[in-house]
Amino acid sequence: MSVEEKQYLEHYDIEKYERPSVTADMAVFAVMNEENRQITNYRKDPAQSLKLLLIKRANHPYKDSWALPGGFCHKDESTTQTARRELCEETGIRDAYLRPFDIFDEPDRDPRGWIISHAFLTLIDGTECSLHAATDARAAEWFSLSVEKTARHREIHEEQAHITNSYRLTLACEQTSPKNHPLCLTAEITETKTFVNYHETVAYDIVSCDGIAFDHAKIILCAFLKLQNEVNENGRPVFDLMPEKFTLASLQNAFEIVQGKKLITPNFRRKIADFVTETDELSEGAGHRPAKLFKRNLDAFYG
Description:
Layout: H1 3-10, E1 21-33, E2 48-57, E3 66-67, E4 70-72, H2 79-91, E5 97-104, E6 115-123, E7 137-156, E8 160-174, E9 182-196, E10 199-210, H3 216-233, H4 248-259, H5 265-272, E11 276-282, E12 292-296, H6 298-302
Parallel strand pairs: 1-6
Antiparallel strand pairs: 1-2, 1-4, 2-3, 2-7, 5-6, 7-8, 8-9, 9-10, 11-12
């Protein structure tokens, strides 16, 4: 650093410009068994769904509403470090697929003031985590997530285009406290894509929302669409939803849950063949026929 630069920094007033607070918010996904679902066929694995972790807020604003886990950045802490700290506090997991996917910075998104959220897509093996609410939360629960596209409208012109998609989010869970009290949260969101000279801008607007705090319904939709896009492109993120060792049937099931469609088994197995390595172990399960267990082929992931 030059002498001139040192002198400049000594007299620089960082309070000259207003500064926002910064948070890290996480959309934590897992593929897990459905709770309280009666098993009717012991030769099949129990039904599973895509789960999203939400916390019940203990304080205002949005007291008693449900929100994504996260928190304010500490001094000298990056947003990624904040996200990993908050994830460990909520789930006990110190290492997970954790990738920033967007920034939410609308001036009025938080009634407390100018607060910018750095949002992270987070994928974990749900069987390995132990939920416990942090000090600012009343509870932490897994919600089954359903995303339905309800409408689509297109206007195509010579130099510009507008595409509007409407989505309905449904988040449902059986709370552990109070016992067996079902919860259902919903939101209606529009996605507007505008193309001018072939360049795209995207905006999301919450039309209605029941029980979800802040603009987190918007963040949830964006995280889900990002997850689907990444899985459709290369499939690798799905492996972070799996345990270390898994059957090919359970891996295919996870792909189908995330993509929202059935896959043809021979085609699926050819597609992922290079990403898995067979072990000498078999699965264990009451009533099941044992199946071979596989794990990631690290050469394909890191080669």
